[in-house]
Amino acid sequence: MKVLIVGGAGYIGSSIASACLDDGITPIVLDNLSTGVEAFLTGREAYIGDMADQVLLDKVFHDHPDIAVTIHCGALIVVPDSVREPLRYYRENVAKSVELVDGLVRNGCRRIIFSSTAAVYGQTDSLVVDESLPAAPSSPYGRTKAMLEDILRDSAEAFGLGALALRYFNPIGADPRLRTGLQTRRPTHLLGRLIEAAETGTPLTVTGVDWPTRDGTGIRDYVHVWDLARAHVAAVRGFDAVCPPGSFVAANLGSGAGCTVLEMVEAFAEVSGVRVPVEPAARRKGDVPGGYARWDRAHALFGWRPTLTLQDGIRDALRWIEARPSVLGD
Ligand SMILES: NC(=O)c1ccc[n+]([C@@H]2O[C@H](COP(=O)([O-])OP(=O)(O)OC[C@H]3O[C@@H](n4cnc5c(N)ncnc54)[C@H](O)[C@@H]3O)[C@@H](O)[C@H]2O)c1
C-alpha cells in the first residue's frame, strides 16, 4: 500500500513516513522544504515542490496511481509568526490546501488524513478537551486549521471524500530509532526551554503560578511523536471503516494526561539528572491555563492508544539532540 505524505520532510510527517515503512506501507513524500529537511528523505521516494502545484500533483499520481491515502501535514506552524503575518499563514495553510484538495480529487484520491491541532479549541473550565467542543481558535494559525477542517467537511460531502482530521496535542520526542526528530536546534516549547536552561545553567521562568491547576502552573498534554505516527498507520489501515466516503471525522491525539510546568520540570530531572531551578513570574497577556485531551474517540475508531510516557518523550528528545548533528549533517 502507498500513502502520499504532504509535508513528509518535516518533524511529524517524517515520523509518520518512518512508521509507515516499519509497517510495510510505502510513503511517497511531497514537500517544498520550506521548513522540512532533505536529510529526512533518505530512503524515501520524494517530490520536492509545492502542494499547490497541480502539474507536480498530476505527476505524483501519474507515477503512483495506487496511492490509497493522502496524509496532509504540510503547513506553517508558528503561532506568533501567524499573528505577525496572517496573510502568509492563510495563503500557505488555507489557500494552498484548497489547491491540494482540488488536485487530489481530480486525481481520484478520496481518502485524506489532515494534521489538525488542539489549537482549534478554546479554553475549557474543566481543562479536559473532547471533540464535542466547538472550534474557538485563538490565533491565526489555529484559525487556518479550523478553516481547513470546514473545507474538508464540505468537500467530503460534495466529492465523496473520506476526510479524517487528527487533532494533535503537543508532540515531543523523536523516532525511537532516531531516523528523524525536530529539525530545529532550539525548540521554543517547554521541553525545549528546559533543555536550554539545563545546558546554560539558567533558571526556567514560569509565567503564571496561580492558574486553577493542581500546582498553579499551566497544564498541557504532551504526546510522543511516535505515538502520533503510529496513530496514522492505524488510521490508514482501517480508513474506510473509520471514515467512509462522504464523511468528515475529527479525533484527538493526545496522551490524555495533563502535565503541569512543575511536573515537566520534575520529569526532566528524573530523566536527565539535571534539576532546573524555576523562577515564578506573572502571567503574560493572552496566556491560558491549558488542558489535556480525551482520546477515546481515536481508540474507538481505529484502536489507537498512546503507549509511550512523558519520560519516554523527554528521553527520546535528549537522545535526538545527540544524534541530530550526524543525521542532519551539521
Ligand atoms: N508540531 C506541533 O506542535 C504540531 C501540533 C499540532 C499540529 N501540528 C500540525 O502537524 C503538521 C506537521 O507539523 P510539524 O511539527 O511536522 O511541522 P514542520 O514544519 O516540521 O513540517 C511541516 C512540513 O510541511 C512542509 N510544507 C509547508 N508548506 C508546504 C507547501 N506549501 N508545500 C509542500 N510542503 C510544505 C514543510 O517544508 C515541512 O516539511 C502541521 O500541519 C501542523 O499544523 C503540529
From TrEMBL:
Which family would the database say this protein is a member of? Belongs to the NAD(P)-dependent epimerase/dehydratase family.
Q: What is this protein called?
A: UDP-glucose 4-epimerase
* Molecular functions per Gene Ontology: UDP-glucose 4-epimerase activity
User: Which EC class, in a word?
Assistant: isomerase
Specify the superkingdom.
Answer: Bacteria
Picking any one GO biological process from the record gives: galactose metabolic process
UniProt keyword list: Isomerase, NAD
Q: Which InterPro entries match?
A: Epimerase_deHydtase, NAD(P)-bd_dom_sf, UDP_G4E
Catalyzed reaction equations: UDP-alpha-D-glucose = UDP-alpha-D-galactose
Reported EC number(s) for this entry are: 5.1.3.2
**According to its UniProt record, which cofactors does this protein need?**
NAD(+)
Which species expresses this protein natively?
Dactylosporangium aurantiacum
Q: Does the keyword NAD apply?
A: yes
Instruction: Give the pathway listed in the UniProt entry for this protein.
Output: Carbohydrate metabolism; galactose metabolism
- Pfam families, A to Z: Epimerase (PF01370)
